[in-house]
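Structure tokens please, single chain.
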Amino acid sequence: MEKLTAYQLAEWEAYDRIDPIGTWRDDFRMAYLSTMMANLTIQVHGKKGAKLLVPMDFMPEWDEQKKTMQIKKQTMEEMKAFALSFAKEHNKQFKVQQNIDNQPPKIRHNKYQGL
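Here you go.
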């Protein structure tokens, strides 16, 4: 850096805008590969006319995420409502399983049983 002139530094910055050097380029390569694999999967297994993806769909946005990411804090009422709904649903499944376990086994009659 000490031997680099301001003009040379400006040239390198311009070159980097045209053909990025470093981690962004690596991220883009992986995003491009991910896009190809995802689109192949969509074309083979997806619904007809499904929207295909582009590399930018897979590009991490490191700086933008820090700026736009906001953690929503739940209120006590929201936490209580979630816990109650979770418990209610879990108890339904538990009661169904208990009823199945408490029933005697069904006797199946086999037409070949007496042979």
